[in-house]
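Hi all, posting the design record for the shared folder.

TITLE: backbone redesign
STEP: 1 of 1
STRUCTURE INPUT:
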């Protein structure tokens, strides 16, 4: 084959390859969880939304920045509480790149990881220590929720001038105090439990004493009522007996008075009573000079 033909074939092949490269470099796709940063000779000229896009081959390029949510963790972050107790904290921050600020993010940091390392991490370290330092060790444990919210607010406020990153949540996962402090807390809790136990025993004894007093009072009232009832019964019996005696005496006096009046008006009444009570038997022995009862002999 002549050399001219060979050169023509090679040139055609090169041209086809070149055109294929240009055609392939004239379009791009961006996923829904990403945003594209358009570059022209390395300079940012705009952003690309999800979907199919076109660019100038060999001149323009598109760098993709994820806008998905990521969680970054800071472990063993040493801090001091308000009462100077050392603690190692574990903080998790959930964040994402702001979709409308990916161009600024890329221009300034080149990617999300670099932005987190240079901006978010210093803010987290600083604000966590500041906020944690406002709480005593006991208060930090007892008020974990408010402490977590305060840390999130502080971190978000410190990053308000960098809207390229959106903080979605902050989680204080763990607070680890020194072994000596944990031992002191344990001893304090045991002491508090003992105090509560003593207080409960005292309250129980107080209640039992009140029950005993109530029972004794009720028994005394019952005895007093029984004695009063007995006294009232004796008084009523005495009054009734006195009334009976008075009535009997009055009746006997009236009978005596009536008999006396009868004797005075009828002298033979005595003889009549004697006759009524005589059994009809004459006496067998007579005293000289005496008369026979109920027999009158002239």
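Okay, here is what came back for every position:
SEQUENCE:
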């Amino acid at each position: 084959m002549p050399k001219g033909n060979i050169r023509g074939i090679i040139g055609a092949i090169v041209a086809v390859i070149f055109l294929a490269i240009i055609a392939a470099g004239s379009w791009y796709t961006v996923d829904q969880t990403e945003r594209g940063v358009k570059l022209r000779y390395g300079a940012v000229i705009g952003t690309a939304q999800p979907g199919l896009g076109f660019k100038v081959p060999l001149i323009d390029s598109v760098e993709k920045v994820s806008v998905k949510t990521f969680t970054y963790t800071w472990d063993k972050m040493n801090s001091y509480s308000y009462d100077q107790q050392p603690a190692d904290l574990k903080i998790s921050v959930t964040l994402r790149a702001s979709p409308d600020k990916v161009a600024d993010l890329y221009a300034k940091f080149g990617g999300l990881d670099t932005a987190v390392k240079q901006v978010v991490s210093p803010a987290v370290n600083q604000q966590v220590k500041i906020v944690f330092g406002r709480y005593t060790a006991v208060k930090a444990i007892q008020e974990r929720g408010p402490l977590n919210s305060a840390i999130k607010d502080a971190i978000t406020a410190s990053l308000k001038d960098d809207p390229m990153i959106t903080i979605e949540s902050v989680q204080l996962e763990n607070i680890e105090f020194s072994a000596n402090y944990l031992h002191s807390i344990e001893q304090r809790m045991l002491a508090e439990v003992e105090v509560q136990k003593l207080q409960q025993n005292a309250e129980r004894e107080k209640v039992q004493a009140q029950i005993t007093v109530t029972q004794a009072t009720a028994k005394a009232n019952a005895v007093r009522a029984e004695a009063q009832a007995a006294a009232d019964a004796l008084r009523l019996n005495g009054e009734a007996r006195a009334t009976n005696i008075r009535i009997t005496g009055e009746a006997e006096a009236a009978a005596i008075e009536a008999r006396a009046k009868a004797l005075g008006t009828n002298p033979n009444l005595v003889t009549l009573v004697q006759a009524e009570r005589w059994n009809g038997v004459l006496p067998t022995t007579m005293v000289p000079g005496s008369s026979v009862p109920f027999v009158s002999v002239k």
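COMMENT: Strands lie at 27-30, 34-40, 43-48, 51-54, 60-66, 70-80, 86-97, 165-177.
Let me know if anyone wants the other runs.
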